[in-house]
Amino acid sequence: MSTNGEQHRWNLLNCLDWDKKIPKVAALARIKRDISNLLKDPPPGIFIAPEPDDITKIHALVVGPLDTPYQGGFFYFILRCPPD
User: Where does the record place the UBC core domain (predicted)?
Assistant: First the structure.
């Protein structure tokens, strides 16, 4: 897609609506708590890593559980937390 001759590329780490807003203190506290809990006691086969400069962006890797159609698979996600 282009506008005025400029090309725009989709970037899954950016959301113009959310990136314009400063996350609320309560939202950041909840995100920090949830990240801390997941790092202390992660569910089997789930690994997370927040972006170093923005904890509202979290990388997650899920390893396919045994005895399921997903066994042996690696599933990568980027989670975006809304500012509120």
Answer: 26-84
Could you tell me the residue range of the domain that residue 16 belongs to? 2-80
Farthest-apart Cα atoms in the chain, separation:
53
Task: Pull the structure tokens for residue 78.
Answer: 């980027």
Q: Say which CATH number the domain at 41 has.
A: 3.10.110.10
What pTM was estimated for this model as a whole? 0.76
Q: What share of the chain is helix, strand, coil (3-state, %, to 5)?
A: 25, 30, 45
